[in-house]
Write a structure and sequence with these properties.
The protein is an alpha/beta fold. It has 3 domains: 4-199 and 364-446, Metallo-beta-lactamase, Chain A; 204-358, Rossmann fold, CATH 3.40.50.10710; 464-555, Roll (Ubiquitin-like (UB roll)). A hairpin with a 4-residue loop joins strand 23 (465-473) and strand 24. The protein starts with a strand and ends with a strand.
Length: 557
């Protein structure tokens, strides 16, 4: 009887940063390695990835990282992790193509790493378990669920899915494979929860019809915003454009590369004569032909940012005009809500025709409550572990499972770092057994003192900074020429305390008298005491807490 453990380094109690681990005896199987985007209070942070450092110590036991699909909340951490974890990455051809593209952009030599292409028809054997895959329906093709098959039963990871079965069979769910896995016995089902508050089954034909109606109503150029990873909707817009005999321009910093990868893998079909390259706007080229569809593609905030530039007429390729129809297929995602709202405000200041699509219609790539229950019934697992979602979503899945006959004790609502150990058909949950956390990406990873860095950035944003600069002769213990410079940035003060900055010079002189009389000068203590006295004085005067940085330059002449 083999011991099986499950834990998450990200993806529980949050949107994004999905990264799960299944340990079977001495082998560790990593499921996805994603990022999430920061909210507004995380000043200057570009991305957030799971703290994966505990895996570095155990990397000899990791058999690989198994990727369910190529969305950034499932693969975005790989460019940072693979520097420390030289383990194989398993994925479908399209997923690996996107991953390799991001690694090349990050400066990796792909020859230094191992990539294993998988297909849903194969089973990969390892010492203590086999890994098999099954096709699922999602907004990006080649999306798969992953089953780790053990003697105790399978641990099945659905990742993100729906049961929308459109005309394109490359997006179909493989119910036969699901049934085969279920018949061999499922110990635990790791099922997505983020869409569980939506009810019923979503009809993607309604969304497609709505887009077609917008095209029919348009009398001039059409501008459509899309997220780069939403390959299915990009193809819809292309197909509808072709039906209406439109020319297509794809706009976006990374858009062309993503389109090229999808074209090479056969997941986008665009006739070459339908694609055009726009020239920079000048007196001769306005790029405003009536038969033109501009597909604005990007990740996270990029589509919103590009639309703002177009609306303000500062973009180099497109200036939004009154005859344009703007179709927004980019619902706000966590971390972009403010940018999305600002974009709408900018767009509405013009007189173009803006078409907003109901967010519920756009969220067709996550399992609704009925789809969650259907997936549970298809696999018939012994235990259910809700993943991919905030805690409220996990609890919602717990409620849905009880509605179809599951006991509360058989539904494990866990946090990142909790470990569920399965042995002899029973389980034990240890709370926070694994160290978890966030690694903030600010150009490069900020792995240490995250809280201190963010606190200082928050203070800078709210209260500004004051620098006090002085030259001190270490031999004579004198401030050279009494030259003390005070510089304030991002800091305002009331007229009645207009002498506050001058007062700081006096405070510095008073502190200096005490610090410069000893045998030795403790420069760190010197700065700390001035900072404390200055902070206390400023707060008493104006109830503000700017960051105070004393710059004391010691000289011997």
């Amino acid at each position: 009887m083999k011991r099986i453990r499950f834990f998450a380094l990200g993806g529980l109690g949050e949107n994004g940063k999905n990264m799960y681990a299944v340990e079977v005896e001495n082998e560790i199987f990593i499921l996805d390695a994603g990022l999430k985007y920061p909210t507004n209070e995380l000043y200057g942070v570009d991305e957030i990835i799971p703290d994966y450092k505990m895996l570095v110590r155990a990397k000899r036991r990791i058999v690989g990282i198994f990727i369910s699909h190529a969305h950034e909340d499932h693969v975005g951490a790989l460019p940072y992790m693979l520097k420390d974890l030289e383990v194989p990455v398993f994925g479908t051809p399209l997923a690996l193509a996107f991953i390799k593209d991001s690694l090349v952009e990050a400066g990796y030599d792909l020859n230094d790493y191992t990539f294993v292409t998988v297909n849903p028809d194969q089973t990969l054997p390892f010492n203590n378990a086999n890994v098999t895959f099954f096709n699922t329906t999602h907004s990006i093709p080649e999306s798969v669920g992953i089953a780790i098959e053990t003697e105790e039963g399978s641990v099945v990871y659905t990742s993100e899915f729906t049961f929308n079965q459109g005309s394109d069979e490359r997006y179909w769910t493989n119910f036969k494979k699901i049934n085969e896995i279920a018949n061999r016995g499922v110990l635990a089902l790791l099922i997505e929860s983020v869409g569980s508050y939506h009810t019923g089954f979503k009809n993607i034909d309604i969304l497609r019809s709505k887009i077609e109606n917008y095209f029919l109503q348009a009398r001039g150029r059409i501008i459509v915003s899309l997220f780069a990873s939403d390959i299915q909707k990009i193809q819809w817009v292309i197909n509808i454009s072709l039906q209406h005999k439109k020319k297509i321009a794809v706009i976006g910093r990374k858009a062309q590369r993503i389109v090229d990868i999808a074209l090479q893998n056969g997941y986008l079909d665009v006739p070459k004569d339908a694609l055009i390259n726009l020239r920079f706007i000048d007196d001769k080229h306005k790029n405003n032909q009536e038969d033109l569809v501009c597909i604005v593609i990007g990740k996270r905030h990029e589509p919103f940012y590009m639309l703002q530039r177009m609306a303000k007429k500062i973009d180099r390729l497109v200036h939004i005009e009154s005859d344009d129809t703007i179709i927004l297929l980019t619902p706000p995602i966590p971390g972009t809500e403010t940018m999305a709202a600002r974009t709408l405000d900018v767009l509405y200041r013009g007189d173009s025709k803006i078409k907003l699509v109901d967010r519920k219609l756009l969220s067709t790539s996550h399992a609704s409550s009925e789809e969650v229950k259907m997936m549970i019934n298809l696999f018939r697992p012994k235990y259910i572990i809700p993943v991919i979602g905030e805690y409220q979503h996990q609890v919602r899945v717990q409620k849905l499972a009880t509605e179809i006959g599951y006991d509360l004790n058989d539904i494990l609502v866990m946090d990142n770092g909790d470990v569920a150990t399965f042995e002899k058909g029973k389980y034990i949950i240890g709370s926070q057994d694994i160290r978890t956390g966030d690694i903030l990406i600010d150009g490069t990873p900020l792995e240490d003192n995250n809280d201190i860095i963010l606190r200082d950035r928050e203070l800078l944003a709210e209260n500004g900074v004051i620098l006090v600069i002085a030259n001190v002769n270490a031999k004579t213990r004198q401030i050279i020429d009494d030259d003390i410079e005070v510089i304030a940035k991002g800091f305002t003060y009331h007229q009645e305390v207009g002498n506050l900055l001058e007062d700081l010079k006096d405070i510095f002189l008073e502190v200096s008298k005490k610090e410069l009389i000893g045998r030795y000068i403790d420069w760190n203590n010197y700065k700390r005491n001035f900072r404390n006295e200055a902070s206390r004085y400023i707060y008493q005067k104006i109830r503000r807490n700017p960051i105070i940085i004393p710059v004391i330059i010691g000289t011997d002449f």
